[in-house]
C-alpha cells in the first residue's frame, strides 16, 4: 500500500529511485513521483504507472545525489497528478513522501487554513508536510525537531521520508505502522518500504521500529525515537537475491509464482520435517507449544487470501488437534469487542506481515492476554515482531498482487501445525501421523504433475473467458479452496465469482445457474465425495457448465461434468494444496485472454497497510 524509496549518497539518485519504484509498484500503482535534491528541489509526478513517470521525467533535470520517490495507492483523494507524492509545503521548505493515513488530518488542516495555509491536493500527506513546515517556521527549530514535534501530534500510521530545503544534505525518515527499511552502503544510504529496491546495492539493512526517526546524510546515520532518545541501529543481513525478484523468463510474476509452488512448498517444510519423515519440528513455536496444545480455543485472524488459508486451517485443526477454532476477518474482529481469554491462542496469518487490520487485531488480543503466533512470509515485517512466536512460510518474495504461492505455503504451515498438535494431544496415532507427514512431503512432486497440464487447463480457460459470472463449490476443507478460486478469478479478470459450500448452493446460488454459468466444483475423493457428486448432478440438471477438479481416474464425474481436471490421488487433508493450483492457472489464463493486467489488477494493492 504505497511504496517509498529514497537515496542519499554519491550516485545519481534518479535511476535508483525509478528502479526502486518499479520493484515496489506491487504496493500501489495509480500514480508515482520523485523529488531530486540538488541546487534546489525538483519534483516530477504523474498519474499512472512508474513507466509513465519515467517517460515524463527522464529528459528533464533529474540530476542530484539525494532524492525521494513514491508509488501511490490512493486513500485520500483520487489518483491524479496533484494528489501524487512527493508533496511540498506551501513555502517550499519541505518535500515529503508518505505511506499510511493521518487520521486527524482534517483537524490539523483546519488549523493550518486558519493560519493562512493553502492546499493544492486533497491528501492527508500535504497536510502533514505543511504542519511540519508551520512548526519549523514558527518555532525556528531544526528540521528534525519540527518533524518529531509534528509526528508526536499526529494520529495514524506513517512511513515517511522528508527533505528540507535549508538542510539539503540530509533526509529524515520515520515510521509508525508502515514499514521502512534502511539499506547501509559505503558513503550512501537507501530507504524503502521493503528490501527489494535495495538488494542490488547492499545486503546490510536496518528495519525501523515504530516511532523511530532516522536522520541520514551520505556519511552518517542517527537513529532516535520521536521523544529524542537515541536508538542503537541493528544492522541485519538480508537473505533476498536479485534472481528472486526477476520474472525468470515468465510473462508475469503470477505465472512464475504459480510454477514456483513445488519449490516454495518444499522450502516451507524443509528442515521442519525429519529426514525419515516421522516428525515435525516447528522451532519458532516451540516455546508456546504448551500453550498451544492446552489452548481452550484457537482464533485465526487474517485478511483476503490469508483468511482463506486460515479457513483451511480451521478444518484441519478441528480434525486433528480437536481444539475449537474461530476464523476471523481481522477488520471485523478488531472492532467487535471480542471475548478473548488468557488460554486462547491467536494465530495471525499474513503474507506481507504488514496488513494494518491484522496487525491491530493481534495488538488488541495481546493486550487481553492471549498468546499470539504469527504465520508470515516477509521476514522482519511488523507482524512477526508483535507476536510471541511464529513460523515463517519461506515461500520467497511474492510480487504478483494475486497471492498464489504464499497461500499454499500458509496452508502447508497450518497443515504441519495441525498434525503436530494432533500428535502431541494424542489424537493422532503413530501410523496415521507418519502417513500424513509422508503425504505432505509428496506435494511438490504431485504439483509438478499438475503443472504439466497447464496447456490443457488453458484450453478450458479459453472456453470460459467471456463468462460474466462463475460459481465455485467445495465441501469440507475444499470449501475454502472454492473461496480462493473465486477470489483469484475476480481479482485479476474482473469476472464476478462466488465461492460457496457445495450443499449451501441449494439455498440461493442455484437460482443463478443456467447454460451460461460455469460452475467450478472441487470434487476430489474424500468422505463427502458422494455428496458432491449429487451437487454436480443438481448443477447439470439446470444446464450449468461444470468444470470439476477430480482425483485422477475418476470416471463417475468425468461422465457428468463438461470438463475434468485431474489431480494426483492424495489424502483428503492434503487436497487443498493440490486442487487450488488448477484454479490459479485458470484464473491466470482467463485474465491474460481478457487483456487484464495480471500482476497489477485495478484498484488492488499487495500489502494493505491502511485499515
Ligand atoms: C491484499 C492482497 C491479498 C492478500 C491480503 C492480505 O488484499 O491483495 O493478496 O491476501 O491483502 O494480505 P497479507 O499480506 O496480510 O496476507
Automatic annotation (TrEMBL):
It is found in: Cytoplasm. Its EC number is 2.6.1.16. Pfam families: GATase_6 (PF13522), SIS (PF01380). One of its GO terms (molecular function) is carbohydrate derivative binding. It catalyses: D-fructose 6-phosphate + L-glutamine = D-glucosamine 6-phosphate + L-glutamate. The gene is glmS. InterPro entries: GATase_2_dom (IPR017932), GFAT (IPR005855), GFAT_N (IPR047084), GlmS/AgaS_SIS (IPR035466), GlmS/FrlB_SIS (IPR035490), Ntn_hydrolases_N (IPR029055), SIS_dom (IPR001347), SIS_dom_sf (IPR046348). Keywords: Aminotransferase, Cytoplasm, Glutamine amidotransferase, Repeat, Transferase. One of its GO terms (cellular component) is cytosol. Its main location: cytoplasm. Residues 2-219 form the Glutamine amidotransferase type-2 domain. The keyword Cytoplasm applies. The active site is at residues 2, 606. Catalyzes the first step in hexosamine metabolism, converting fructose-6P into glucosamine-6P using glutamine as a nitrogen source. This is Glutamine--fructose-6-phosphate aminotransferase [isomerizing]. Homodimer. GO terms for biological process: carbohydrate metabolic process; fructose 6-phosphate metabolic process; protein N-linked glycosylation; UDP-N-acetylglucosamine metabolic process. HAMAP family: GlmS (MF_00164). CDD domains: GFAT (cd00714), SIS_GlmS_GlmD_1 (cd05008), SIS_GlmS_GlmD_2 (cd05009).
Amino acid at each position: 500500500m504505497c511504496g517509498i524509496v529514497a537515496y542519499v549518497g554519491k550516485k545519481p539518485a534518479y535511476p535508483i529511485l525509478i528502479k526502486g519504484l518499479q520493484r515496489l509498484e506491487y504496493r500501489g500503482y495509480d500514480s508515482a513521483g520523485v523529488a531530486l535534491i540538488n541546487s534546489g528541489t525538483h519534483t516530477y509526478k504523474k498519474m499512472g504507472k512508474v513507466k509513465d513517470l519515467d517517460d515524463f521525467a527522464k529528459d528533464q533535470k533529474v540530476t542530484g545525489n539525494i532524492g525521494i520517490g513514491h508509488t501511490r495507492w490512493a486513500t485520500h483523494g483520487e489518483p491524479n497528478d496533484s494528489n501524487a507524492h512527493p508533496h511540498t509545503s506551501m513555502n517550499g521548505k519541505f518535500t515529503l513522501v508518505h505511506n499510511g493515513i493521518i487520521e486527524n488530518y482534517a483537524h490539523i488542516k483546519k488549523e493550518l487554513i486558519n493560519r493562512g495555509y493553502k492546499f493544492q491536493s486533497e491528501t492527508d500527506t500535504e497536510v502533514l508536510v505543511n504542519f511540519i513546515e508551520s512548526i519549523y517556521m514558527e518555532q525556528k527549530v531544526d528540521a528534525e525537531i519540527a518533524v518529531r514535534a509534528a509526528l508526536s501530534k499526529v494520529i495514524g500510521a506513517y512511513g515517511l521520508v522528508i527533505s528540507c530545503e535549508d538542510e539539503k544534505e540530509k533526509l529524515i525518515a520515520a515510521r509508525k505502522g508502515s514499514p521502512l527499511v534502511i539499506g547501509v552502503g559505503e558513503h550512501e544510504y537507501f530507504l524503502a518500504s521493503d528490501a527489494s529496491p535495495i538488494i542490488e546495492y547492499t545486503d546490510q539493512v536496518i528495519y525501523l521500529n515504530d516511532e523511530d526517526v532516522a536522520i541520514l546524510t551520505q556519511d552518517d546515520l542517527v537513529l532516535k525515537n520521536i521523544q529524542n532518545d537515541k536508538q542503537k541501529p541493528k544492522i541485519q543481513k538480508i537473505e533476498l537475491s536479485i534472481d528472486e525478484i526477476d520474472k525468470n523468463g515468465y510473462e508475469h510474476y503470477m505465472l512464475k509464482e504459480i510454477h514456483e509452488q513445488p519449490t516454495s512448498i518444499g522450502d516451507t517444510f524443509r528442515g521442519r520435517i525429519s529426514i525419515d519423515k516421522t516428525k515435525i519440528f516447528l522451532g519458532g513455536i516451540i516455546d508456546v507449544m504448551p500453550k498451544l496444545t492446552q489452548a481452550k480455543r484457537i482464533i485465526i485472524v487474517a485478511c483476503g487470501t490469508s483468511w482463506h488459508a486460515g479457513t483451511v486451517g480451521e478444518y484441519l485443526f478441528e480434525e486433528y488437534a480437536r481444539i475449537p477454532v474461530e476464523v476471523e476477518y481481522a477488520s471485523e474482529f478488531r472492532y467487535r469487542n471480542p471475548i478473548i481469554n488468557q488460554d486462547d491462542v491467536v494465530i495471525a496469518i499474513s503474507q506481507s506481515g504488514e496488513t494494518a487490520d491484522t496487525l491491530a487485531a493481534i495488538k488488541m488480543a495481546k493486550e487481553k492476554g492471549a498468546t499470539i503466533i504469527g504465520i508470515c512470509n516477509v521476514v522482519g515485517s511488523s507482524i512477526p515482531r508483535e507476536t510471541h512466536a511464529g513460523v515463517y512460510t519461506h515461500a520467497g518474495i511474492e510480487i504478483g498482487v494475486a497471492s498464489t504461492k504464499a497461500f499454499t505455503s500458509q496452508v502447508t504451515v497450518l497443515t504441519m501445525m495441525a498434525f503436530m498438535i494432533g500428535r502431541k494431544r494424542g489424537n493422532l496415532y503413530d501410523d496415521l501421523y507418519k502417513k500424513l507427514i509422508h503425504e505432505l512431503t509428496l506435494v511438490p512432486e504431485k504439483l509438478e504433475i499438475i503443472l504439466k497440464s497447464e496447456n490443457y487447463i488453458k484450453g478450458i480457460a479459453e472456453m470460459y473467458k467471456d463468462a460474466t459470472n462463475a460459481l465455485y463449490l467445495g465441501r469440507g476443507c475444499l470449501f475454502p479452496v472454492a473461496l480462493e478460486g473465486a477470489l483469484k478469478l475476480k481479482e485479476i479478470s474482473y469476472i464476478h465469482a462466488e465461492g460457496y459450500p457445495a450443499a449451501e448452493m441449494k439455498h440461493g446460488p442455484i437460482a443463478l445457474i443456467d447454460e451460461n454459468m460455469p460452475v467450478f466444483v472441487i470434487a476430489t475423493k474424500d468422505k463427502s465425495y458422494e455428496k458432491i457428486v449429487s451437487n454436480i448432478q443438481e448443477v447439470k440438471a439446470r444446464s450449468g457448465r461444470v468444470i470439476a477438479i477430480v482425483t485422477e481416474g475418476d470416471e463417475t464425474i468425468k461422465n457428468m461434468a463438461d470438463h475434468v481436471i485431474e489431480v494426483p490421488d492424495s489424502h483428503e487433508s492434503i487436497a487443498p494444496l493440490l486442487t487450488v493450483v488448477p484454479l490459479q492457472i485458470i484464473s491466470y489464463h482467463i485474465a491474460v485472454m481478457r487483456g487484464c493486467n495480471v500482476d497489477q489488477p485495478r484498484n488492488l494493492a499487495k500489502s494493505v497497510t491502511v485499515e
